[in-house]
């Protein structure tokens, strides 16, 4: 449409905001939103993958340290001791936190929120386990560095941050995408107004109007 308008002799818009330069500026702004949204979408995707690594799949993820912790407590206190049973119970809660029956959801926002809450529960149960281990005092002295209290506390902090990053990056994506949609709507509305302006200036049967009237924005 801009290419066509540039060929029109003495195009005079009904309002200044329907000028070729204003239309071009809005096109460029809208294109910029495409880049912003794409970047935010990628950031969200990377945040989700990072959370999976921290909670589930990484070499020293929460899921991977549970068995060594469980085994260490059993060795120290005995397999049927109350301490071992208490820790095993918390570990079962951690492992089941992401496997709860899902409520039917329809929107991406609801899905992300539900996932955030699920991982938040997993992190909270993990924190409860750390408290139990800490209360064992000097009795809990694992040989593996990744299951020492300090390392577990660090992992908890990382996990909470990873979960929050998913929510924050998704929020940024949603907000910038909404802005982009608004910009595309404004672009479409301006195109309609420019067509009306051309029709008013040159006439319905004019070559100018006939050239752009079929263009869909």
Distance between the termini: 9 Å
Question: Number of DSSP helices?
Answer: 7
The helix/strand series, from N terminus to C terminus, equals HHHHHHH
Uncertain segments are none
Radius of gyration: 29 Å
In oligomeric terms, what are we looking at? single chain
Number of strands: 0
What is the residue-mean pLDDT, rounded to a whole number? 93
Give the overall silhouette: rod-shaped
Helix-strand category? mainly alpha
Strand content: under 5%
Question: What helical percentage do the residues reach?
Answer: over 70%
Largest sheet: none
Explain the layout of strands and helices.
Elements: H1 2-5, H2 20-57, H3 62-77, H4 82-96, H5 108-135, H6 149-202, H7 207-212
Helix pairs in contact: 2-6, 3-4, 4-5, 5-6
What does this protein structure show overall?
It is built from 7 helices and no strands. With 217 residues, it is mainly alpha-helical. The longest helix has 54 residues, at 149-202. The mean pLDDT is 93.
Q: What is the gist of this entry?
A:
With 217 residues, this protein is mainly α.
What are the salient characteristics of this protein?
74% helix, 217 residues, 0% strand, rod-shaped, single chain, mainly alpha
């Amino acid at each position: 449409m801009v290419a066509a308008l540039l060929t029109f002799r003495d195009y005079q818009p009904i309002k200044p905001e329907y000028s070729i330069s204003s239309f071009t500026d809005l096109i460029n702004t809208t294109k910029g939103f495409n880049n912003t949204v794409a970047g935010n979408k990628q950031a969200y995707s990377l945040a989700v993958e990072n959370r999976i690594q921290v909670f589930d799949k990484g070499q020293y993820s929460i899921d991977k340290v549970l068995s060594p912790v469980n085994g260490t407590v059993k060795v120290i206190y005995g397999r049927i001791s109350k301490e071992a049973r208490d820790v095993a119970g918390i570990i079962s809660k951690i492992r089941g936190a992401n496997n709860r029956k899902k409520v039917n959801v329809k929107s991406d926002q609801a899905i992300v929120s539900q996932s955030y809450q699920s991982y938040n529960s997993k992190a909270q149960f993990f924190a409860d386990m750390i408290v139990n281990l800490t209360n064992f005092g000097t009795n809990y002295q694992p040989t593996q560095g990744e299951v020492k209290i300090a390392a577990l506390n660090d992992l908890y902090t990382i996990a909470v941050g990873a979960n929050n990053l998913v929510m924050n990056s998704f929020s940024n994506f949603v907000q910038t995408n909404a802005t982009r949609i608004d910009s595309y709507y404004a672009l479409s509305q301006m195109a309609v107004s420019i067509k009306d302006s051309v029709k008013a200036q040159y006439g319905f049967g004019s070559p100018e109007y006939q050239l752009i009237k079929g263009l869909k924005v």
